[in-house]
Amino acid sequence: MIYIIYYILYIIYYIIYYIIYYILYIIYYIIYIILYIYIVLIYIYILLLLLFEGSLEVKLPTKWTDEKQSRAEAERRERLEERRSEEKESEERRCRCAKR
Q1: Rounded to two decimals, what is the model's pTM?
Q2: What is the pLDDT along the chain (100 residues), one digit of tens a residue?
Q3: How many CA atoms lie within 13 A of 38 on its CB side?
């Protein structure tokens, strides 16, 4: 009788043991697959980032722009303003001459 109870407890022990073992095994592979998918998504994101780098950027003036570039733009704007003012002055002179 004692041997039968011992044998039944032994069987129950191994059933529980293997159930827990396989549940943990399944959880391990689920986590492994999730991490693998996460790594692949990061890899795809980096590839897309490198592929489209700069193509979606909007050039807006900021205080972090390169000083040389901002100086060159300022000089170009000054030249344009000077040309416009010279053109206005020459038009005014023409108008004055035409009125006389």
Answers
A1: 0.41
A2: 788 888 999 999 999 999 999 999 999 999 999 999 999 999 999 888 877 766 666 666 655 555 556 677 778 888 888 888 888 888 777 777 766 5
A3: 6
